C-alpha cells in the first residue's frame, strides 16, 4: 500500500463542524466536530481509501 504525505483541506460548515477533503485521493471526504478531529478522521479516511484502491487495482497518481 502506498503511503506519503497528503494535503487536507478543511472547510468550516455553518453548523460548526469541519469538512475534511483529501483532494489527491478521489472520493476521500470526511468530517469532524473540531479541526483536530477532522484531521484525524481525514487520516483514517485516506488510509481506508488507499487500502480499498490498492485491493481494486486503482492507481492514484503522484
UniProtKB/TrEMBL annotation:
Write down the superkingdom of origin.
Bacteria
Q: What Gene3D superfamilies does this protein map onto?
A: 3.30.160.250
Region forming the signal peptide: none
Q: Which InterPro entries match?
A: HicB-like, TA_system_antitoxin, TTHA1013/TTHA0281-like
Residue intervals of the HicB-like antitoxin of toxin-antitoxin system domain: 6-61
Name of the molecule in the record: HicB-like antitoxin of toxin-antitoxin system domain-containing protein
Amino acid at each position: 500500500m502506498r503511503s506519503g504525505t497528503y494535503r487536507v483541506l478543511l472547510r468550516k460548515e455553518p453548523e460548526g463542524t469541519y469538512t475534511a477533503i483529501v483532494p489527491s485521493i478521489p472520493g476521500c471526504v470526511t468530517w469532524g466536530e473540531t479541526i483536530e478531529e477532522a484531521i484525524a478522521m481525514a487520516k483514517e479516511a485516506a488510509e481506508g481509501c488507499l487500502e480499498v484502491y490498492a485491493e481494486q487495482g486503482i492507481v492514484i497518481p503522484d
